[in-house]
Automatic annotation (TrEMBL):
Domain of life: Bacteria
Catalysed conversion reaction: a myo-inositol phosphate + H2O = myo-inositol + phosphate
CC cofactor: Mg(2+)
Cell wall biogenesis/degradation found in the keyword field: no
Alphabetic keyword roster: Hydrolase, Magnesium, Metal-binding
Organism: Salinicoccus sediminis
UniProt-recorded name of the protein: inositol-phosphate phosphatase
Gene Ontology molecular function: any one: inositol monophosphate 1-phosphatase activity
Binding positions (Mg(2+)): 65, 83, 85-86, 208
Enzyme Commission number(s) of this protein: 3.1.3.25
Keyword set includes Transcription: no
């Protein structure tokens, strides 16, 4: 079976698994801090996806947020980048507004992206060069917008953060308004559909954006880091995703601010 068809089936089955598993109790643990949560369902879903991929494609490699693929240091061959639950805080507090996110790269090049909005059972998928879809409906090309007339997705934590908050504050002042959804993967598909015009993050991991970048690109959107630099699919970085017009406009806020650039370099290093 083609990787793309297999990926669509796999993420749908993983969605069924989560919806079934939610009917039983699950354990919630803190990871790096009391607000950084992980549940049994995150671990079990990642194991489910991992095992299914390797059953079919033993030679493929997999990076998962919850521990699989720590030995992957290069992008040779077929690489699956998996976030079993993106939006774990929403999962724990709301039992909705979370996604499974799976990006596939072949020799470092985007191949396919899959994002399942689990509780709404909407599957977003894209094969590089062949367009992006919400279920069976192809998503249209994005329109350019200006910040002053746009909604943007942004977590308020970045606005109050020392060293970078002042730049995000300027962006918030100039935007029509902000939205905070709590799942980077859903922020990407909301951007791809024009529900918001852009999504900004100071720090994301590969599993947060691997699928979203591919889906967004297929609607004409642009993803770089906040300094307009290309993102390395194996590293954490800041992310600026949006339609080409607003992407260019937003990039100026960050690239013209020496204090922000210094904080960014300190957090993420030189490119
Ligand atoms: C998180 C979500 C959230 C983003 C965080 C991510 P997780 O992923 O995508 O929207 O702001 O940076 O870590 O931990 O729920 O998989
Ligand atoms: Ca995530
Ligand atoms: Ca996660």
């Amino acid at each position: 079976m083609e990787i793309y068809e297999f990926g669509k089936e796999l993420i749908s089955e993983a969605g069924d698994f989560i919806r079934g598993r939610m009917l039983e109790d699950f354990r919630v643990d803190a990871k790096l801090n009391p607000n950084d949560l992980v549940t049994d369902v995150d671990h079990e879903t990642e194991a489910f996806i991992y095992e299914r991929i390797l059953e079919h494609w033993p030679e493929h490699r997999i990076i998962g947020e919850e521990g699989h693929g720590t030995d992957v240091e290069d992008t040779r061959g077929v690489l699956w980048i998996v976030d079993p639950i993106d939006g774990t805080l929403n999962f724990v507090h709301q039992l909705q507004n979370f996604a499974i996110s799976i990006g596939v790269y072949i020799d470092g090049k985007p191949y396919a992206g899959f994002i399942l909005d689990v509780m709404n059972d909407n599957l977003y998928h894209a094969l590089a060069g062949k367009g992006a879809y919400k279920n069976d409906v192809r998503l249209g090309r994005m329109q350019d917008t200006h910040l002053a007339k746009s909604l943007i997705a942004l977590n308020s934590n970045w606005v109050i953060k020392e060293g970078i908050g002042h730049t995000f504050t300027e962006v918030v002042k100039d935007a029509r308004s902000t939205r905070s959804y709590g799942s980077a993967a859903l922020d990407f598909v909301n951007t791809a559909q024009g529900i918001v015009s852009a999504a900004l993050f100071f720090r994301l991991h590969p599993w947060d954006y691997a699928a979203g970048m591919i889906i967004l690109a297929e609607t004409g959107g642009v993803t770089t880091n906040l300094l307009g630099e290309e993102i390395n699919i194996l590293k954490k970085d800041s992310v600026l995703a949006g339609n080409p017009g607003i992407h260019e406009e937003l990039k100026q806020y960050f690239t013209s601010d020496e204090k922000f650039i210094a904080s960014h370099r300190k957090a993420h290093g030189e490119k």
